[in-house]
Amino acid sequence: MKKIGILFGKERSFPHGVIERINSKKIDGIIAEPVSISKVMQGEATDYAVIIDRISQDVPFYRAYLKNAALTGTAVINNPFWWSADEKFFNNCLATKIDVPVPKTVILPSYEHPDDTGNESFSNLAFPMDWEGIFEYVGFPAYMKPFAGGGWKNVYRLDSLGDFYEKHPETEQLVMMLQEEIIFDEYYRCYCIGGKHVRIMPYEPRNPHHLRYVADFKPTKERLKQMEEIVLRINQYLGYDFNTVELAIRDGIPYAIDFCNPAPDADIASVGQENFEWVIETAASYAIERAKAQKPGQDNLTWGKYISNSATKKALYK
């Protein structure tokens, strides 16, 4: 019997919905359940062929558990090693190399020194930094947000230099990105599952959270195809099994705004019934596919093109 486990926190509708959908299919030799952890012994396999991870970004113990599980043969959705290494600024840097339009973005040192560091720790950092060049490049209005993390936490919209100098001290030890604001005509949030299944959802980020999926943008078939190609390219390079990509359309060009969301919102109360049905069915079917393909004791993780292409190049030079 191959077990598919869901590792989750406070959310309920998505994890329980996926479990129920998988079990309702009555696939011989496959069942789904919430992950149960009673102990974690180094190098010992778990009972799960597949684990869908929805919470380890907030719980380091779970991340360590998942890495051990992956090492011993569990197919973890998403790859916990890559997810641990990835962050939003790298995503933007990669996008510039795979022909995906993104807003002009820079990374900023934290306003306060990290704990256990002092002035001597930053001898390689110019003082003052080229603030004039930074502000000229990004422009205003702009968004300042953490280079890693999500959930719209610590996000600031800045209209001027004055706004920046007022708000930057509030970020304390956080490392922030300063990003050009894309004044958009249309906006979409796009699920991508398995690097091949895409759901493009009209989205209005300026609405209150519970109304953001209430939007009447109507993309043409050509625009839908264009956005789907961008979403697939991003996720295939990053190697995420389950992610969302946010696209803002300005002057007919889709800009990837945010595409490091490996535990994206999938609650029925926010995404709506139709989107919820799609994500439940697609996630359930994909988890079953991964369970069938899983080989005990082997590497069953997804590695994106960025990693696999690099590994192939290095192998050629040996």
TrEMBL record:
Lineage of the organism: Bacteria, Pseudomonadati, Bacteroidota, Chitinophagia, Chitinophagales
Keywords tagged on the record: ATP-binding, Nucleotide-binding
InterPro entries cross-referenced by the UniProt entry: ATP-grasp
Organism: Polluticaenibacter yanchengensis
Boundaries of every ATP-grasp domain copy: 92-289
Tree of life domain: Bacteria
Descriptive protein name: ATP-grasp domain-containing protein
Signal peptide: none
Record-annotated membrane-spanning stretches: none
